[in-house]
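Subject: mismatched residue count in predicted assembly?

I count 259 residues in my input, but I want to confirm that the predicted structure covers every chain. Input:
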Amino acid sequence: MNHREQLAEHLAFLTELGIDGVSRDPRWRRAAVAPGADPVERGSSPAAVGRGVPGLSEVEGSRAEGETGSPAGSLQDIRADLGDCTRCKLHTLGRRQIVFGVGNPKAALMFVGEAPGRDEDVQGIPFVGRAGQLLTKMIEAIGLRREDVYIANVIKCRPPENRNPEPDEVASCEPFLFRQVGAIAPVVIVALGTFAAQALLKTQEPISRLRGRVFKYGGARLIPTFHPAFLLRSPERKRDSWEDLKQAKALLDASEPQA
Ligand code: URA
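Triage response: the counts match. Full output below for your records.
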């Protein structure tokens, strides 16, 4: 694909997201940050962000270490601890392989989805099916590549017929996600859909009430947004997701040391 075709595809995607104009003004990229929000510094006190800013809420998220409170360890350690997991019934229900996670182990931006689907189960890589292709476009729309970020799921094995994960499955698997978050120590976590947001934030609130807000999550910021599979069914909500992604990008940019 030449540059002209690439640009045409990018613009078509932005149009698909509901964006009707772009600007060269750098302030445009930061427009999603609520006025008055303090910039985030990696590793700094999280209390700064959102202080007194309506629309930015502050809650403590769940721990970023394992359920036991033990240190996260490296991603390799976590994968080794997971092993050929038989902790929940999903290992008997037709999973082909464990889908651990993919991407940059030092990513500043981490995406968390729900559970592998059929394509992910076959390939062993999260978000490679239709929803994954949309996620890849969303990542590229904020000027990043898939290999810049880290992508994981709450559940590492495919539920049969892509049914929702069950509470005991989430309970068995989420400690590994918490450890992945601890190992990567991202600046921003984007929780894709209800299951990811609820597991990470330890809440029962639906995604419709969680999105549009930014949560403290240890040293990171957590942005709940719609799951790409939902966006495929409800494209009119892509615009909301775009706002969430711009917010994520603005927080990432604000965390970078100024030249
Ligand atoms: N949906 C998810 O939540 N995760 C994947 O990896 C693929 C689809």
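Strands lie at 102-103, 109-113, 150-153, 188-192, 215-217, 220-225. Marking this ticket as 'not a bug'.
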